[in-house]
């Protein structure tokens, strides 16, 4: 029982990081769609375009994420 209680802070930290990453990813995707429109749709009036099909990498807490 003591081992479970001792591991709670680590589990809570990992869950918080994962939730933060999901939230940041959703925010970045929403902003990208607002600026560049939906992927694979044509609109000559938009100011920005999607480039490439690979999911980009970004860094948080000195770690590389996809």
Give a description of the structure.
The structure is a single chain. With 66 residues, the protein is mainly α. It contains 1 helix and 2 strands; from the N terminus they run H-E-E. The chain has a two-stranded antiparallel ribbon with strand order 1-2. The chain is rod-shaped, with a radius of gyration of 18 Å. The model has no long low-confidence stretch (mean pLDDT 78).
Provide a compact summary of the structure.
This protein is mostly helical.
Beta-strand percentage range: 5-15%
- Helix-strand makeup class: mainly alpha
How would a crystallographer describe the biggest sheet? Answer: 2 strands, antiparallel
Strand order of the largest sheet: 1-2
Instruction: Report mean pLDDT, rounded to a whole number.
Output: 78
Rg, alpha carbons:
18 Å
How far is the first residue's CA from the last residue's CA?
36 Å
Q: Runs with pLDDT <50, length 5+?
A: none
H/E topology pattern: HEE
Helix content: 40-55%
Number of helices: 1
Principal-axis shape equals rod-shaped
| Count of DSSP strands | 2
